[in-house]
Amino acid sequence: MNILGIETSCDETAASVVRDGRHVLSDVVASQVENHQVYGGVVPEIASRMHSEAISGVAAKALSDCDMTMGDIDAIAVTYAPGLIGALLVGVNFAKGLSLSSGKPLIPVHHLRGHIASNYISSPQLEPPFLCLVVSGGHSHIIQVDGYTSLRIVGRTRDDAAGEAFDKAARCMGMAYPGGVHLDEIAESGNAFAFSFPRPKVDGAPLDFSFSGLKTSVINLLHNAEQKGEMLPTNDLAASYRKAVVCYLMDHFIKAARETGMKKLVVAGGVSANRLLRRELTALQSTYEIYIPALRYCADNAAMIAAQGYYEYRAGHTAGMELNAEAQRTIEG
Predict the structure, then answer these.
(1) Within a domain: residue 187?
(2) What's the mean pLDDT in 27-44?
(3) How many domains does the chain have?
(4) Closest CA to 265 of 251, 285, 295
């Protein structure tokens, strides 16, 4: 079964054709990073406009790259939630128009379910049940995946996401957008024990995260040093901060694994590209069955949407022209 996936939840216009939820036949991504760098982050209005300009060409290229036409496509999967509402609307409306004109079924896909499905592409042998740590610029969740479309939130952030905490800290250290990538690279040559940062706790919810305190602590450290005319070693600061965030994520993830009894651990989302996080997870292979997506499928892409779309379709989850974009929606349903 060939699924055409469409993804426009943030600043990547993407289209992909995936067969049977596992085999990527084409994967096209038009990035907007350079257009947002001057602003230090994604500008929603610019993102929406650029999606509108790129979506037709990106979808056409996804089809041509695998030598297909819409006649070879069995269904269309599209990210409908969560994300930037204007950006989502571009993808949803394009997919609806394509569905109406071609007569192909329309499959709404939750963005985070798509990130989890990136592991079905990278590791075709992976099957539920498993526990997944979903970490990105806008989301930090621990998800118990009981089935391809049966998911339950075990832990979540109460404020900022891990990716946002990385990006904000990197920006304060003078790094260009997207900061988390640069912070990760610079941290490789730093001393991770040079600075200490707090490990926040959420009262009554030991598996939930709170990154606002971590983010504030590094910002205050930088501001205090600036007021005193001091220069902090950026490599050491980046390494120490990265270690604090990653250890915080890992502590909760392992605690959740013990509480749920899960032995199969999966990571997904943009922050799953973080080098230290990948190393920490790999180190657990003697105790747990570990799955980490290929780097190309960590960031937003349409292959993951098409992959999850296959399983949503098999579960009977299709939509008509009433489908609308949603800026926020739980992964559970």
Answers:
(1) yes
(2) 90
(3) 2
(4) 285
Q: Within a domain: residue 213?
A: yes
Place of tokens 């939840």: 9
- Which of helix, strand or coil describes residue 35? helix
Cβ(117)–Cβ(126) below 8 Å: no
Average pLDDT over residues 21-35: 94
| Cα–Cα distance for residue pair 171/202, rounded to 1 Å | 26
Q: Are residues 264 and 302 in the same domain?
A: no
pLDDT of residue 45: 95
Do 142 and 227 share a structural domain?
Answer: yes
Q: Mean pLDDT across the chain, nearest whole number?
A: 96
In a domain, 105, yes or no: yes
3-class SS letters over 110-154: EHHHHHHHHHHHHCCCCCCCEEEEEECCCCEEEEEEEECCEEEEE
Distance, in Å, from the CA atom of 168 to the CA atom of 260, rounded to the nearest integer, reads: 33
Q: State whether 163 and 99 are in the same domain.
A: no
Model confidence over 113-159: pLDDT tens digits? 999 999 999 999 999 999 999 999 889 999 999 999 999 999 999 99
On whether residue 149 sits in a domain, the answer given is yes
> What is the C-alpha to C-alpha distance for residues 291 and 104, in angstroms, rounded to an integer?
33
Secondary structure letter of residue 238 according to DSSP? H
Amino acid identity of residue 190, one-letter, is G
Q: Which long-range contacts (CB under 8 A, 24 or more apart) does 167-170 make?
A: 167/41, 167/137, 168/215, 168/219, 169/215, 169/218, 169/219, 169/238, 169/241, 170/238
The string of pLDDT tens digits covering residues 155-209 is: 999 999 999 999 999 999 999 888 999 999 999 999 999 999 988 889 899 999 9
Determine the structural domain holding residue 109 and report its residue range. 2-117+298-314
Please state the pTM of the whole predicted model. Answer: 0.95
